[in-house]
Amino acid sequence: MRIAAGVDVGSTQTKAVIVGEDGGIRMLGYALVDTGANVQRAAENGFLAACRESGVEPEGVGYVVGTGYGRYKITFGNTQMTEISCHARGAHYLFPSTRTVIDMGGQDSKAISVGEHGEVLDFVMNDKCAAGTGRFLANAAEVLGIGLEEIGPLSLRARHPVKITTVCTVFVESDILSYLAQGKKPEDVLGGVHLAIARRTVSLARRVPIEPGITMTGGVSRNTGMVRALEEVLGAKMQVSQQAHFAGALGAGLFAIEKMGESFESGIWRASNATPRG
Amino acid sequence: MGETQASEYRGDIHRQQRDLMLRWYQRLEESAHGGPPAVSLMISGNCVELLEAFGAVPLYPEVNALQLAIRHQSLDPILAAEELGYAADNCAYVKADIGALVKGITPTGTELPVPKLVLCNFVGCNTYVKWFEHAAEFQNAPLAMLDVPFLRTAEPRAEDVAYIVCQLKEIVKQLEELTGRRFDYDRFREAVRCSARVEEAWSRIKHLARRTPTPFDAYFDAITLMGPLYVYRGSPEGVEFFELALRELQEKAERGEGIYDQERFRVVMEGPPPYPFFRTFRDMFAAWKATAVASTYSTVGGLWEFGFRHDPDHPFESLAMHMLAHNVTNRNYLQRYDQIRRYVEEWDADAVVIHFVKSCRLFSAGQGDMRGYFTQQLGVPTLYVESDLEDPRYFSEAQIRNRMDAFFEALEHARSTGTLHRGVAAIRHAPGGEIAPAASDRLKILQ
Ligand code: SF4
């Protein structure tokens, strides 16, 4: 079996996926670690954890493609590709009918128009500002004193979602506080926050434009409230996989298998090259 | 993605360009000490020929601003202007210029004169009006407004031409009074004649970029040539420089020399560059061996590659025509679409790259729709990136590089599957088999 890996070093989390080819292509295992301050270490830890999950030796991995913002910091990677190409490819693997990818991560949200083989036809991304990204949600959760995992489910209970007018990640705080002061329920506030982001993301996505076969990827896809809010604004159902969070790393792994070709002799991983521990 | 190659061509023209620009700053310094009179002017559709007739030196605040930015000196003056009360989203050129005036900063450290006249040739961008009002106030210099109506129709109307000619003649009188020099009509015609020769050479240079590979980058290298184009257009030095540049680039083209060992992508650029990160931005294209074959920004001062020339037999009228119709800033938006489309078709491009400038309303308003027009209606891959032309705070390298890499990854993939088209073939034909009509045909303007 030919084995390759994709490592997606994002702004908050690092994801790694091990992919094997043996007639067909399979995802052998995956892992997630916090990126933290040491990007290189995070990439290594993610990769090693994914190897353990898959039961393969790190030395047995023939080719590694790095993606995400930290991709150039991955010392054991053979090559790098952008997460735009990787998310498109990963989403297409998870759902071959994918024609539009909506990816929401910690710092970025993007919409990608995908061809029938998982290739990128067009894409748009949010600009420098963090409005409409995972960071906006994280801030809201913090102000409300509610865990990030809970805000999605709680927002689903909103009966009268409030109107959040700001798209600024910093100013949303004062909006939230003033709603709470008016006695609004946390779920209604959260319902409003989720809808505000969904509207912003969908108006961004409409520029690609949106074709049926919409797949959501990225860390925020685990937030059920966000998925619902997006579907409401889109007026359409989305495909969300259990592994949606790993779509970028998975895509990188698929590219790695492809690029590896028949050339694999020994893996690129050398324990001696690893960042000193301690 | 391969190794980043050196993307610059360094020939005689680069040395001469630098000398010419340094000489310009020297002349400005002389002007500050009783030398030739200086007159402030805007770049868009500028009427530098009129100044030549008086032996006056043009003082271009835009050139000063961009020189500050490219030398990584723009943030201090911008902050100084913000302290004065200019808002975060004011045009950063204005802030850099006003801040530099207030703090006495100049790009080369040489002194700049107080202009005899601040001549606001209002061509296309309405920020100019307020900018020059402020500049006149801060320098305690007289201000004149040269009001150029927007181009509403394909061809300018006779009344518009007459309106401008009349204003130009008034300015001649004002300049006579302010400089104490007589207007020399023969010298004026001579300047217009020089301009026509420079424009011919410049236009031919632009057309060299239609070859594959293009011998120069029609965005990054064209910008290098733009300084002399605006300062020296109406002078024999300008003629000499541009005819030399043409020869040099022509020889390069004949040798089949491009910018890289292999030219992989040909793009059309829209929007001004991020001057504070000029090099970094250029390297992002070099990493993919992508070259600009045409750019709208290089037509701000004048659009000559489609045939227009100044005319020494009708000097005033040709100045008016230039200001009205033959520069990108005064043309309507859909004409800009058509200009870019012509570049894609006739300059054999694969794609369009739009650099959105946060603080520039003139260039940036509507660029989101422009992207939609090219990708969705014409089927031309179009990338959109954002930063600023002057303010370094808006450039986020990782994000821009990411978009750039993703874009070229997609183009590379499309090429490998035979779905990337170039030139006329890049423009998707309408479903009925007809070619999509020109965008500006849509515009219905009441006369
Ligand atoms: S707004 Fe744009 S065109 Fe107008 S002066 Fe500023 S940079 Fe120039």
Account of the 3D structure:
The complex is a heterodimer of chains A (278) and B (447). By secondary structure, chain A is of the alpha/beta class. Chain A folds into two domains: 2-87 and 246-266, Nucleotidyltransferase, domain 5 (2-Layer Sandwich), CATH 3.30.420; 97-240, Nucleotidyltransferase, domain 5 (2-Layer Sandwich), CATH 3.30.420. Chain A has helices at 39-54, 83-94, 134-144, 148-155, 172-181, 186-205, 224-234, 247-260; strands spanning 2-9, 13-22, 24-34, 63-67, 79-80, 100-104, 109-114, 120-125, 214-217. Chain A is globular. Chain A starts with a strand and ends in an 18-residue tail after the last helix. In chain B, the strands form two sheets. Chain B has a four-stranded parallel β-sheet with strand order 2-1-3-4, with helices on both faces. In chain B, α11 links the parallel β5 (265-270) and β6 (290-295). In chain B, α4 packs across α5 (92-103). Classes of the chains: A alpha/beta (278), B alpha/beta (447). Chain A binds chain B through residues 69, 80-85, 117, 119-125, 127-128, 207, 209, and chain B through 1, 368, 371-372, 375-376, 381, 384, 386, 394, 396, 398-399, 402-403, 405-406, 409-410, 413-414, 417. Bound molecules: iron/sulfur cluster. The site of iron/sulfur cluster has 10 residues of chain B, from α6 and α14.
List the helices and strands and how they pair.
The complex is a heterodimer of chains A (278) and B (447).
Chain A: E1 2-9, E2 13-22, E3 24-34, H1 39-54, E4 63-67, E5 79-80, H2 83-94, E6 100-104, E7 109-114, E8 120-125, H3 134-144, H4 148-155, H5 172-181, H6 186-205, E9 214-217, H7 224-234, H8 247-260
Parallel strand pairs in A: 1-4, 4-5, 6-9
Antiparallel strand pairs in A: 1-2, 2-3, 6-7, 7-8
Helix pairs in contact in A: 2-8, 3-5, 3-6, 4-6, 6-7
Chain B: H1 12-32, E1 38-40, H2 48-52, E2 57-59, H3 61-70, H4 75-84, H5 92-103, E3 117-122, H6 127-139, E4 143-147, H7 158-179, H8 185-208, H9 220-231, H10 236-254, E5 265-270, H11 278-286, E6 290-295, H12 315-325, H13 333-346, E7 351-357, H14 361-364, H15 367-377, E8 382-387, H16 397-416
Parallel strand pairs in B: 1-2, 1-3, 3-4, 5-6, 5-7, 7-8
Helix pairs in contact in B: 1-9, 1-10, 3-5, 4-5, 5-6, 7-12, 8-10, 11-16
Bound molecules: iron/sulfur cluster.
Iron/sulfur cluster is lined by residues 91, 93, 125, 127-128, 360-363, 389 of chain B.
